[in-house]
Design brief:
The complex is a heterodimer of chains A (about 220) and B (about 350).
Chain A: H1 2-14, E1 18-21, H2 29-40, E2 46-51, H3 54-66, E3 71-76, E4 79-85, E5 110-113, H4 123-137, E6 146-149, H5 164-172, E7 176-180, H6 181-187, E8 197-199, H7 201-210, E9 214-215
Parallel strand pairs in A: 1-2, 5-6, 5-9, 6-7, 7-8
Antiparallel strand pairs in A: 2-4, 3-4
Chain B: H1 21-28, E1 39-41, E2 50-53, E3 59-67, H2 74-91, E4 95-104, H3 112-128, E5 132-139, E6 145-154, E7 170-173, H4 179-187, H5 193-204, H6 208-217, E8 221-224, H7 229-241, E9 243-247, H8 258-263, H9 269-278, E10 282-284, H10 290-295, E11 305-309, H11 314-322, E12 331-338, E13 344-346
Parallel strand pairs in B: 4-5, 9-13, 10-13
Antiparallel strand pairs in B: 1-2, 2-3, 3-6, 4-6, 7-11, 7-12, 8-11, 9-12
Helix pairs in contact in B: 2-3, 4-5, 7-9
Classes of the chains: A alpha/beta (about 220), B alpha+beta (about 350).
Chain lengths: ~220, ~350
């Protein structure tokens, strides 16, 4: 009687949520089960997965975070329950509305900065504008794939630059910060670089040519 | 008699048996470093082997590697373990000379015929390498482990370390990535027999051709890709060379089926451990496919050579290694950049 009651309670509380029990299984089995289960539910629907293996717990969380999904863990003794919500997966490739009629992705773009000041006029103003531009750039929903820094633009990525933290944040978010190596040598800044990949004109040209859209602020 | 399945001796889903790289660096950090003017390569650069100059013409390359079964067939396990151990000599630009068998084996639990098969498999590969097995050492232990200690030689001026990559060089990888994925996929019933067979065949392949081409072309730097994955070994090479690497994930040759195994979620624990090791040093542009990001961290057994090659020679060099046969997969996967805040830039 008691057993019947408790099992009915579980099904009542869990009626709306798919549960995957991977207890007793070791990596990568729980991950396979999680991935299969995620594909069976719709975006936004929640799912719980139970594991009693510390390594699997860690790997499941890493996997979910890499997919941009939340992972809420409750632990009782050695048993961990992760509750997650299916994210809008494949954010990076096939979003139909991001494609124009010719099927070229119009959402990717590169920002090419050729000076540490924005626009021509009062240098003080140019400095403020550039700072404001990069602070706003990192807040965009659609971030650039690359930020290319050329000529005096490389100064923005140096330790003493007021925007080097904004550039670091962009890099953390997956934007490649590219520095012109020749420009760094020219200004003698080899030892001051805070962020970015030292690059050359071959790579920079290739990057600019490959993207559909370049912004020159 | 029923054929003995070596994989039955190891725990299900045992992932990779190598210690995490970070843990290892930490444990070894206070060990006094041996100093000798003739010691050409020591532990400092995390290279593949120790190298000692015995005279103006000859340096000795000294290395070892062993591991538990990664396949069912004992002969094949011997072949793979031997090819893997010999690889460190090739990765220094050398030629294997002699080897000792290292065997951990419990006769109470496994038929002795299996022992013989493993040794014979190892011997066949050592012969193919043109080296000699001159003895060995066995202890009673379970599950079994097998490998070699190898001595090779190289001319001191022809030594190729992982510390010579120069900005402007192109990066060449000589074998496909994905052995860890397919071994794990096979255990979980997610890899086809054909794809798993390709992985086994690739693991048995010596890095001899690549090393010979490297010596002929006088390339600047080289390492072999094993347990720490492409990213882990590339990181050590970039670090030792004081440069950064840019690697195009789309150009990395993959074993057929490896991507599909990861797509189904069968990602071994070793992959995550390897990712943890490079996380502060590797940058992935947004848009790099998740499974490719994980495959660059896939632990390889008897993987290929990663080389940095003068850009003017690179295409000729790749042709030299690949030859006319369709089986070889040497590919240009990226380039060497000046030392940047991060070591590895994947796109």
């Amino acid at each position: 009687m008691k057993n019947w009651q408790s099992s009915s309670r579980i099904s009542y509380f869990c009626a709306h949520m798919k549960t995957v029990d991977s207890q007793g299984l070791r990596c990568p089995q729980p991950l396979i089960m999680l991935k299969e289960a995620l594909q069976e539910i719709s975006v936004g629907e929640s799912l719980s997965i139970i594991t009693d293996n510390e390594t699997s717990l860690k790997n499941l969380i890493t996997f979910l975070k890499d997919q941009g999904a939340e992972a809420k863990v409750t632990t009782s003794g050695k048993v961990h329950t992760i509750i997650t919500i299916r994210p809008d997966s494949n954010l990076t490739d096939t979003e139909p509305e991001l494609y124009c009629e010719s099927c070229l992705p119009i959402n990717t773009y590169v920002v090419c900065i050729q000076n540490n000041l924005m626009g021509s006029g009062d240098p003080e103003l140019g400095k403020v504008l550039m700072e404001s531009f990069l602070e706003n750039l990192k807040l965009q929903e659609n971030l650039p794939t690359h930020v290319v820094l050329l000529n005096a633009g490389v100064k923005l990525a140096m330790k003493q630059s007021p925007v080097c933290s904004a550039l670091s944040e962009l890099e953390e978010l997956g934007t490649r910060i590219m520095l012109c190596g020749t420009c760094i040598d020219h200004y003698g800044l080899q030892y001051d670089i805070a962020v970015g990949m030292i690059s050359n004109m071959v790579v920079i040209t290739e990057t600019l040519a490959a993207t559909g859209h370049v912004i020159y602020p | 008699m029923k054929r003995f399945d070596l994989l039955s001796t190891i725990e299900y889903g045992g992932c990779s048996s190598k210690l995490p790289a970070g843990l290892l660096s930490e444990a070894l950090k206070d060990l006094p470093v041996a100093l000798d003017p003739n010691l050409l390569v020591d532990v400092d650069t995390h290279d593949d082997a120790g190298v000692y100059r015995i005279n103006q013409e000859t340096a000795l390359i000294f290395t070892t590697d062993f591991f538990p079964p990664i396949c069912s067939d004992p002969f094949e396990f011997g072949e793979i373990a031997a090819a893997n151990a010999l690889s460190d000599v090739y990765a220094m630009g050398g030629t294997p000379l002699m080897a000792l068998n290292l065997m951990m084996f419990s006769p109470g639990r496994i038929p002795m015929e299996v022992f013989g098969e493993i040794i014979r498999g190892g011997d066949s590969i050592v012969r193919e390498a043109g080296a000699l097995i001159v003895g060995g050492h066995t202890i009673d232990d379970h599950p079994p482990k097998y490998g070699l200690a190898v001595i090779g030689t190289v001319h001191p001026d022809k030594l190729i370390t992982n510390a010579g990559a120069a900005p402007g060089d192109l990066l060449v990888l000589t074998k496909s990535i994905g052995t860890g994925a397919l071994v794990s996929g096979q255990k979980n019933g997610l890899a086809t027999g054909e794809d798993y067979r390709r992985a086994l065949d690739q693991m048995k392949q010596l890095n001899k051709t690549g090393a010979e081409a490297a010596a002929k072309f006088g390339i600047s730097s080289m390492t072999d890709i094993t347990g720490f994955g492409l990213a882990g070994h590339a990181l050590k090479m970039a670090e030792a060379s004081h440069v950064s690497f840019r690697i195009r994930t789309g150009s990395i040759p993959l074993l057929p089926g490896a991507y599909q195994v990861f797509e189904k979620g069968s990602i071994p624990g070793a992959t995550f451990r390897n990712q943890e090791f490079t996380v502060d040093w590797a940058h992935f542009t947004r848009g790099v496919d998740y499974n490719l990001k994980m495959l660059v961290h896939d632990a390889q057994t008897s993987g290929g050579l990663l080389m940095s090659v003068n850009p003017d020679l690179a295409s000729q060099f790749v042709l030299e290694i690949n030859g006319p046969g369709p089986e070889n997969t040497a590919t240009i996967i990226g380039e060497v950049l000046s030392e940047s805040p991060r070591r590895l830039y994947f796109e």
